[in-house]
């Protein structure tokens, strides 16, 4: 039996199948091959500033942002192609770092920042001159932003920040930290503020890089804020709107994350196929075993379903203002898929790949984060169960 799998999407099944997107996908893939492929799997922190600068020179940076903001004005569908090709690289750290850079902090500045802040933050970000961390998670809150304990108290000089942020990717490499903090004098949900905090500001302490299970090249660290004074000009969005802005950003980023996770999962399926075609057991190739063929076919079908869900969520994001349930559903499916594929890939590889320098072991560790970061699987289930459509279909009140 011949089992055929492909690398990436074919032109016939590409995202919004048109000539422009097919050509853009090829440009992205070619640029990634030159800029990113040489550093895939490296075991030291990569220089994210340099990577973004190189992408900028090849007109691959800032695809989703307007020309007025320093971007290329290609739209969200172009960013979806960018995210998908990131996943097909097969490097969780690179994918995570560039997702934070382009799809977590920068969009908030683009949507809620002033033209002066576009000049100060967004355009340098697109050019690779500035790098941001997304300092939201805390020791006792994680992605549960409603329970943040970091406080921001306003005075005549700006804002005084106190608190701790935990497991912040890019923390040791960032020039500014995107900090979400609670304003004690205001009532929920309009009681939070977003501040861009310079990493060298007095009172900002960044720990040594943490020894994380996966995504080990993401410069992840804890951040402590001790009476940090931040000028009001570094506030993004209106006072009190930080919580609302952050929730919306999570919903949007989860769709981008889903597209990347699905591609990463398919990269894993391809690694399994490649291994099975080269490994013999009892005189025959592993790929000839019907049980493995069935498993690969099952994973391929799950991938096709998960990818379709993510595409539907992206389409709704572009065309409508209501896509929360689709976002949660696509993140849940893609996170489950990439976790299952990584486990199956490591199991197939066996003892030979149960070592830190194995790509399959790295895949196993990196893939696990999708079910935890920017909202756990349980949080996605809670969001789906709370949706109006779910209540209508089940009769739950």
Order of helices and strands: HHHHHEEEEEEEEHEEHHHHH
Mean pLDDT: 92
Choose one word for the global shape: globular
Q: Report the count of strand segments.
A: 10
Cα distance spanning the termini: 51 Å
> In percent, how helical is the residue content?
40-55%
Topology:
Layout: H1 19-35, H2 48-57, H3 76-88, H4 92-112, H5 115-127, E1 132-135, E2 151-155, E3 158-168, E4 176-182, E5 192-198, E6 204-206, E7 221-230, E8 235-240, H6 242-278, E9 280-281, E10 284-285, H7 290-319, H8 324-349, H9 359-367, H10 377-385, H11 388-394
Parallel strand pairs: 1-4
Antiparallel strand pairs: 2-3, 3-7, 4-5, 5-8, 6-7, 9-10
Helix pairs in contact: 1-3, 3-6, 4-5, 4-6, 6-7, 6-8, 7-8, 8-9, 8-10
Describe it.
The chain is α+β, with helices and mostly antiparallel strands and 397 residues long. 48% of the residues lie in helices and 14% in strands. The protein contains eleven helices and ten strands. It has helices at 19-35, 48-57, 76-88, 92-112, 115-127, 242-278, 290-319, 324-349, 359-367, 377-385, 388-394; strands spanning 132-135, 151-155, 158-168, 176-182, 192-198, 204-206, 221-230, 235-240, 280-281, 284-285. The strands form three sheets. The chain has a four-stranded mixed sheet with strand order 1-4-5-8, covered by helices on one side. Helix 4 packs antiparallel against helix 5. The longest helix has 37 residues, at 242-278.
Task: Name the descriptors.
11 helices; 397 residues; globular; 14% strand; alpha+beta; four-stranded mixed sheet; disordered N terminus; four-stranded antiparallel sheet
